[in-house]
From TrEMBL:
The keyword Repeat applies. It comes from Hevea brasiliensis (Para rubber tree). The keyword Glycosyltransferase does not apply. This is Vacuolar protein 14 C-terminal Fig4-binding domain-containing protein. It comes from the Eukaryota. Residues 622-655, 688-727 are annotated as: Disordered. Transmembrane segments: none annotated.
Length: 727
């Protein structure tokens, strides 16, 4: 310090700390002259002493005017040194940078002015301080004083010019600082950052594209800024980078894909649109690099397909189609399980379009990578079953197509039907609202006969008798009305003449026994009219309840539809179809006379032509057990067909085309006996529940039937038909 004081006149130091700017300026000019003389003499030690004095006594002084004088003095010394200033920058620049954070705005202003003058002199030599200068300018760009902001802006422009012409700038050292600053929310700082990114990207020798993943997220974050100008600048920078990506042979798609996936879920529409646009280009350009990220990309695309903004929906759909069109083998890193997991999660989306596309993906994977998908079947099967309850018919139909594709294998077919029945059992609304649609569609996709046989086999042993009855009624209604099951109806009509029809009839009969009206409908469809009449006469009082009458009402109305046109035409030959007449009259007798169904059926029967029956026919169609009576009224070696005609050379009168109707009747009666016992048990439980809530006189408890009694079929004598008394 002593050397410096001896070199510089005391008046210069005194004026450097004066409150008047003019005095400080004149003192700086005198200081500049002295330093020039020292530089000419090559006495750099004394120059260092002067700079050290300016730093310690002035720029770090607690007095604001001293700090201002120190800054202008350092700038003057640098100007005096000109080309030799570089060797003293380690002393000069740090105190100036320190002053950028001074509490006095005027000091900060003079710090900008000083560094501006220093930079003009040393140019590229001060690049070594670039990160510190950039950090300081970043903060000053958001300064509360407008004059400081203006000074910082001028300095910033000069630094940009120096960096663009310098070959010493290190982008690798700068990027970590830039990445850190990209999270700042201040609007002025964001403008400052975007400006620098744009400038650096314009320099041919600086590869900003290679470091784009480091600051891409920050740029996307600016797209939702409240300032329109910042949004526009960020979008412009992103557009320029996207164009460079299209023209670049080498791009790190992977790291950027992760950022884009996150930004595609942004609450800001503009951000989502930009992100999905980038993803669209990446899918087209990325190739093998994007294979490990396909699942994440799909997870971003599917929600955007249902976006409220049409532009986003359009781009998302296009991207989805592009991605699905790419065929990649699991050996190339394509993870089927990850894609399935995304598709499964999107099946619970609130948006129909997203759920539909998720199902399309599962279907696509099944077609391309069936073995791999089936390995994950246990993880997605329950979700696919739940999707059958979807409020959208289109979703349900697509789910059924996926199920049908899975069920091509026998073991998966059985699993599907078992789980389907289980879902119908636990979700009554599914059976009620979607049952018919599901059954019809499965019949189209998987062969109607196969589906009905499997369902019948499962329902035959169903423990929940109430559910079994409801399910059979639903299946029966679809069988009688659905156009998809027309071929099945044709086959059943041939039950008495076609072995395939007979097998189907017998297969369905076992489970149709859960519902008397379903059995009667099946017999009318199969033209086993004699058996239909026998079933009707086997009904007892407990069978004819409200539910039965409702089902009977539906059947009577169905008899008037084109499906049963053949049956109505057969009424034109009452002599040949006497059992049909008896069956229909039996149904008529079960209907309340005031019901609409009674009037419909009676009107139809009135149109039947008069026919004179001979004695044998009357006996054959009389009440009682027809199988026993037939055995006594036809010649040995003959068989009576279901339409009443006698055929020779068949021995067993109760066996028609291999169908043992006597055995079928016993099967029906046993099942109905179980239903009656079940109904009684349910009634007793309800009565007990009701009585427990009321104060009643103790009564003798009613004996519960034993297990053996519940499983014992009714005796022939306990069954009474219409007009018969039980003794």
């Amino acid at each position: 310090m002593a050397d410096a004081l001896s070199i510089i006149p005391s008046s210069v130091f005194r004026n450097l700390s004066d409150k008047l700017y003019e005095k400080r300026k004149n003192a700086a000019l005198e200081l500049e002259g002295v330093v020039k003389q020292l530089a000419a003499a090559g006495d750099h030690d004394k120059i260092s002493a002067v700079i050290n004095l300016l730093t310690t006594e002035f720029t770090y002084s607690p007095q604001a005017n001293h700090r201002k004088g120190g800054l202008i003095g350092l700038a003057a010394a640098t100007v005096a040194l000109t080309t030799e200033a570089a060797q003293h920058l380690e002393q000069i620049v740090p105190p100036v940078l320190f002053s950028f954070s001074d509490q006095d705005s005027r000091v900060r202003y003079y710090a900008c002015e000083a560094l501006y003058n220093i930079a003009k002199v040393v140019r590229g030599d001060f690049i070594v301080f670039f990160n510190q200068i950039f950090d300081a300018l970043c903060k000053l760009s958001a300064d509360s004083d407008a004059n400081v902001q203006s000074a910082a802006h001028l300095l910033d422009r000069l630094v940009k010019d120096i960096v663009t012409e310098s070959d010493q700038f290190s982008i690798e050292e700068f990027i970590p600082l830039l990445r850190e600053r990209m999270n700042v929310l201040n609007a002025y700082v964001r403008q400052f950052l975007v400006g620098w990114i744009t400038v650096l990207d314009s320099v041919p020798d600086i590869d900003m594209l290679g470091f784009l993943p480091d600051f891409l997220d920050g740029l996307f974050n600016m797209l939702s800024d409240s300032s329109h100008e910042i949004r526009q600048q960020a979008d412009s920078a992103l557009s320029e980078f996207l164009q460079e990506i299209k023209n670049s042979p080498s791009v790190d798609y992977g790291r950027m894909a992760e950022i884009l996936v996150q930004r595609a879920a942004s609450p800001d529409e503009f951000t989502r649109l930009t992100a999905i646009t980038w993803i669209n280009e990446f899918v087209k350009l990325g190739g093998d690099q994007l294979v490990p990220y396909y699942a994440d990309i799909l997870g971003a695309i599917l929600p955007c397909i249902s976006d409220k903004e049409e532009k986003i929906r359009v781009v998302a759909r296009e991207t989805n189609e592009e991605l699905r069109a790419i065929k990649v083998d699991p050996a190339e890193g394509f993870v089927v399980g990850a894609i399935l997991s995304i598709a499964k999660s999107q099946l619970s989306s609130e948006w129909e379009a997203t759920r539909i596309e998720a199902l399309h993906w599962i279907s696509t994977l099944l077609n391309r990578h069936r073995a791999e998908v089936l390995c994950f079947l246990n993880k997605i099967f329950d979700t696919l079953l739940k999707a059958l309850s979807d409020p959208s018919d289109e979703v349900v139909l697509l789910v059924l197509e996926v199920h049908a594709c899975i069920a091509k294998d026998p073991q998966h077919f059985r699993q599907l039907v078992v789980f389907l029945v289980h879902n119908f059992r636990i979700d009554n609304s599914l059976l009620e609202k979607r049952g018919a649609l599901i059954i019809r569609r499965l019949c189209v996709l998987l062969d109607a006969e196969r589906v009905y046989r499997e369902l019948s086999m499962i329902l035959e042993g169903e423990a929940d008798l109430d559910f079994a009855s409801i399910m059979v009624q639903a299946l029966n209604l679809s069988l009688l009305t659905s156009s998809e099951l027309a071929e099945l109806r044709v086959l059943l009509k041939q039950s008495l003449v076609n072995p395939a029809g007979k097998d189907l009839f017998v297969s369905l009969y076992a489970s149709w026994c859960h519902s008397p009206m379903a059995i009667i409908s099946l017999c009318l469809l199969a033209q086993t009219y004699q058996h239909a009449s026998v079933v009707i006469q086997s009904l007892v009082e407990e069978d004819i309840n409200v539910k039965f009458l409702v089902q009977l009402d539906k059947l009577i109305r169905l008899l008037e539809t084109p499906i049963f046109a053949y049956l109505r035409l057969q009424l034109l030959e009452p002599g040949r179809y006497t059992w049909l007449l008896k069956a229909l009259n039996g149904l008529l007798m079960l209907l309340p006379q005031q019901s609409a169904a009674f009037k419909i059926l009676r009107t139809r029967l009135k149109t039947v032509p008069a026919y004179s029956f001979n004695g044998d026919q009357i006996k054959r169609t009389s009440s009682g057990n027809p199988y026993t009576q037939i055995h006594h009224h036809i010649p040995s070696g003959s068989q009576i067909s279901e339409d009443g005609e006698v055929n020779q050379d068949i021995g067993n009168s109760s066996l028609h085309n291999g169908i043992n109707f006597r055995s079928r009747l016993q099967q029906f009666e046993q099942m109905q006996h179980q239903h009656r016992l079940h109904a009684k048990a349910q009634t007793q439980l309800r009565n007990i529940s009701t009585s427990s809530k009321e104060v009643q006189r103790p009564e003798e408890p009613q004996r519960q039937p034993s297990v053996a009694e519940m499983n014992r079929p009714p005796s022939r004598s306990s069954r009474r038909g219409p007009g018969q008394l039980q003794l």
